[in-house]
Design a protein that fits this description.
The strands form four sheets. The protein has a five-stranded antiparallel β-sheet with strand order 1-13-12-9-10. Strands 7, 8, 11 and 14 form a four-stranded mixed β-sheet that branches. A three-stranded antiparallel β-sheet has the order 5-3-6, with no helix packed on it. By secondary structure, the chain is of the alpha+beta class. About 25% of the residues lie in helices and about 20% in strands. The chain has one domain. About 35% of the residues are buried. The two termini are about 20 Å apart.
Length: about 375
Amino acid sequence: MRKSIYKINAFFLIIATFLVAGCHKPDSIATTSDENEKNEDAVCYDCDYLKQAYADVDDHATQLGEKLQNPYLIDNISRAYQNLHAGSSAPSFSPNSLYVEFQPKNFQELDKLEQLDLDLFDYPLDRRLLTEGDYYVQEGKSVEDLPYYYAVVPSNYSFPSWIAYRVIDNMFIPDNDPTLEVEALRISGNLDEEEEQSFSNSQLTRKKLDEVEVNSAGHSSNSPEACAHFPNGKIVVENVLAGGNSYRGVRQAKVVVRRLFKVERMLTDDNGFFRCSKYFHNKYTVLVKFKNEYARVSRMRPWAIHEQFFPIKINFGRWKNLECGHEFRISNPNVGGTIATSHWCAAIVQMACLSIVKWQKPCTSDFRQKHSPLC
């Protein structure tokens, strides 16, 4: 079954690549806007750098800063609680999450690890993230070597027996307790409120959508509080066949939002929208990965064969005060061979695979209930 999926991906990737040659050049590869210039509060610290990096033919490496203290250690969370509730004893916090390192020894183990469908990172999460790139060369390894992979898993996670791993930290990560979390970040030196030097000084323009909804925390999705700390937006891809600078939502793309050890994953809806249900303080990274239950769109480079086991990924930037309904655009770069070309092709392939599902799947009541837009 998986082999047939790869054949579908390769077929449409070839078609998408040919389509690039005859299309107009867009304004940007990441985010664009024509109406929300007045909102100066939303800050992306690496969008300009990413725009330049994705226009190149070469991959760019993840850039890390200094090692950080883990704010979610039990002792730190207990201390934060006591600071907020002076005179009262802290409850007994039990770990709800584990920070772990997986150590695959060969491609067979790596393939099985990817199938566990964890949010895996090839760089340590206890370092300050400046920008997430296409790869990270770990100490003592070369770019061709299999890296170790880092993840945050539930405390009751059942580890497979076929791969070596180590638990680095036991943690308590509050999903939606901003007061406790902010105090834990403060006393561990991770509040990170000060301004910092961006990879580029100017910012990409931004777009705000008019849709108003209420998220799981009870905030209107158009309120500054909701969107600044509960990131939401829309992933769209340029539809060159429609012409006229037309974009459409990318359905069922995997979106991953991360700040330190706090990670949330969701799929875009049928219009390309996503919305976090967890609280993120600031300076969170927004990623999109082209994988769902029907397809995994990958690329293979001979100097890093292990990357073919993972879906193509786009880093849409490290954000503070992301505004409501931010539109993340995947534009047709009008050239072949760049990183941005693979991003656009991956989005087109994903949409094509869902169309194949629509053609091939019988619209039974169970299937219609789960995937009504495909019927």
